[in-house]
Amino acid sequence: MKNYTHINDIDDINSWIKEAKALKKNPLKDIELGKNKTLGLLFFNSSLRTRLSTQKAALNLGMNPIVMNVSGDAWGIEFLDGTVMNGNTAEHIKEAAQVVSQYCDVIAVRAFPTLIEKDKDESELVLSSFVKYASVPIINMESATGHPLQGFTDAITISENATKKKPKVVLSWAPHIKALPHAVGNSFVQTMQKMDVEFVITNPEGYNLNPEITKDTPIYHNQKEALKDADFVYTKNWSSYDDYGKILKTDSDWMITNEKIGNAKFMHCLPVRRNLVVEDAVLDGENSLVIEQANNRTFAAQLVLKKILENG
Ligand code: CP
């Protein structure tokens, strides 16, 4: 595997889960693999988990991670070809990506969508420009339309906590006061479509994710009906896809509560706003998997890095 930019870069989800679980049991077993190799982490947006877990994964492999907050600390980067650069951008991605490639053996990039220009977001301009112009492998640390490190993490966490062969997994939209990206929801859908689970999505009218991603996954607009007999409830807010980037609904009737999810395990990628997305009792209860999900981010990233390093 050269790059890890999409959940489809996973060739066999079950074998990847098995390998990640083995790394979790013995995280330092490949400490020599990344010796004298540098991982560059470029953040165009904020992060806690991705930033720390990906560095931790690199350290577990003996790599040297270096981190840069591109927005704010670096020169403004121009991504469009042929632009007369007489505005706010001082450096073109053609040079920037090649320059970072001189210092790093692998580059990981986080770049969120505009949530204004759907076509631009769907073109994955930032991520695809790094893939195009860098001379080293690229890892997606959450792009405009996907968060494949999170998706793989969630697969590991479900596999670890499943008590039946084919659990029912529900992805439920929940309210938020800000317009949020679709990336986590998209990658979770694409991951569940690869797994042997009964998978349904529930969201209000107007909040269906991109149909090219949801494909034939059942979508319920009745949350109660969708949550019936759920083994795992994965909660995430996203803004409207059809009315691109808009907030259509903020009232609390879609908030996740213990009463709604019963004995199901609760999952969220974090960060999460308490008592807006999900009530305290769920997050503080014994069925919450959110901290273990965050823990598993390290081993998902570690396996991705391991496969890239082994590929040479
Ligand atoms: N889940 C996740 O990607 O968290 P951060 O935004 O803190 O990295």
TrEMBL record:
This is N-succinylornithine carbamoyltransferase. GO terms for molecular function: amino acid binding; ornithine carbamoyltransferase activity. Residues 184-305 form the Aspartate/ornithine carbamoyltransferase Asp/Orn-binding domain. It comes from the Bacteria. Carbamoyl phosphate binds at residues 47-50, 75, 110, 147-150, 269-270, 297. Homotrimer. One of its GO terms (biological process) is citrulline biosynthetic process. Belongs to the aspartate/ornithine carbamoyltransferase superfamily. SOTCase family. N(2)-succinyl-L-ornithine binds at residues 142, 176, 236, 273. The gene is argF'. It catalyses: N(2)-succinyl-L-ornithine + carbamoyl phosphate = N(2)-succinyl-L-citrulline + phosphate + H(+). Catalyzes the transfer of the carbamoyl group from carbamoyl phosphate to the delta-amino group of N(2)-succinyl-L-ornithine to produce N(2)-succinyl-L-citrulline. Is essential for arginine biosynthesis. Pfam families: OTCace, OTCace_N. The keyword Nucleotide-binding does not apply. Residues 5-160 form the Aspartate/ornithine carbamoyltransferase carbamoyl-P binding domain. It is an enzyme of class 2 (transferase). Keywords: Amino-acid biosynthesis, Arginine biosynthesis, Transferase. Pathway: Amino-acid biosynthesis; L-arginine biosynthesis. Its EC number is 2.1.3.11.
